[in-house]
Amino acid sequence: MIDLLGNEEFEQFYASYEEPRVFGLRINTGKVARAEFLEKSPFHLTPIPWVSDGFYYQEGERPGKHPYYHAGLYYIQEPSAMAPVELLEVKPGERVLDLCAAPGGKSTQIAAKLQGEGVLVVNDIHSDRVKALVKNLELLGVRNAVVLNEKPERMLTAFQGYFDKILIDAPCSGEGMFRKEEEMMGQWERHSVQEFAAMQRELLAQAAVMLAPGGRIVYSTCTFSPEENEAQIAEFLDKHPAFEVVPIEGFSPGRPDWLREPWCEADGYSSKAKDAVAGTARLWPHKLRGEGHFLAVLRCVDGGSAEASGSASTRGSAGAGAGAGVGVGVGADPSAGAADFVAAAGKRSGRPALRGKGRAEAPPSTGVSLEPLEAFSGELLRSEPFALRRLVCYGEHAYASPPGLPELHGLKVVRPGWYIGALHRGRFEPSHALAMGLRLREAKRALSLASSDERALRYLKGETLEVAESEILRDPKETKAAKGYCLVCIDDHPVGWGKWLDGMLKNEYPPGWRWT
């Protein structure tokens, strides 16, 4: 770092590691408006300059130990890590890919910007990390996400030219996180930089194939290494002339002068590519309140590249296998066999669906009935929040898949959409993911506890509650009976299900989610 920064700036850089780390949270605007949350927030918050919904909080406040965390109203996230998605400029209705998504902080940030519209595909190659990714998507009430556990090269055929925006939060040597995670220092080795650089090179090339003409890629790392940052972008630009760098403002610029020995090949890049690298950005811990990051925004000029030239017909037919429909969904095992239905206007469609050891294939016909789901929806829901979606069943587990998806045959699908519940022995059991994705106004029968009510914490601990019939919110014209499933909320924000009968609420909060 001394060679890169020089003695004077290195001293400032080094001194920043003696300072305490900062802490951040991001409001989940998919569930609560910014102004509403700030009005009810119990925390002392100060804005993070580069994120509209991000705030610093004080170390001792412990927002992970508040009922609002369990309601999915915010995500605890390192402040610099919020910057990449801001630069992606996601708009509702777009098709977005988070290519290296676990544990899901940036995926949930993208989802909030989509506002339930469009398609969010999240992928991570590590199966052990996908569980955390799924849980975070469910906690924050994301309705329109598809979760894959796949090698990116296997995704190219299904998603060629499909996405409007792609985020590559690339695996890296992680030097920028040394202050936050000291154990990473012990894992760092010089040879790992070259290993990560090879992976990053492949990820950028694969993303280019899946991007639509005019689309945008944001590439980010949490390392200071020029080989993993400026060098990756310069090499990509030379190999992909249809792409250009969109200059980033508000942060320290990228360093084209570091594209030299001993870090990079001095003559390995065109002068045009070197100049463009100045439009990337570096987030330095001694220049802002956050950890170290590198950011680059790449735009595909319409009609320019080999990847883009073949994508127009693919994009036009991408939704051919995804009809309008109704969907539902709990931790389904994709190997259990599958059926696919579209339940729009009470009809079913026999389109191919997902089955077979986690990879999508055409299933045999099945006798799974939708009647229990329809009965549940009629009794509990004011509207069909999963309408206009394709219903995909893995065995008895049902998911609402976002419209416009290509066929996913052969891909390892963890979640083909919003998990709604299980169709089991003639009855429907709603999932926790369904509860977290709903809004209070969408439920015909609900219980809303104040966050100050001691029963709110007891519910989150999994206890049975005493609840008077008068506390069950319902419109007698729609739902006369208080008995049965009701949506449990805290300060009007859903946190799970309960079953009410004769003054007692049986707790349906999942054991693995409970307050400890």
From TrEMBL:
The protein, known as: Ribosomal RNA small subunit methyltransferase F
Q: Which residues bind S-adenosyl-L-methionine?
A: 100-106, 124, 169
Q: Which CDD domains match?
A: AdoMet_MTases, RsmF_methylt_CTD1
Q: Which UniProt keywords apply?
A: Cytoplasm, Methyltransferase, RNA-binding, S-adenosyl-L-methionine, Transferase
**Enzyme class, first EC level, given as a word:** transferase
Residues in SAM-dependent MTase RsmB/NOP-type domain copies: 8-301
Residues spanning the signal sequence: none
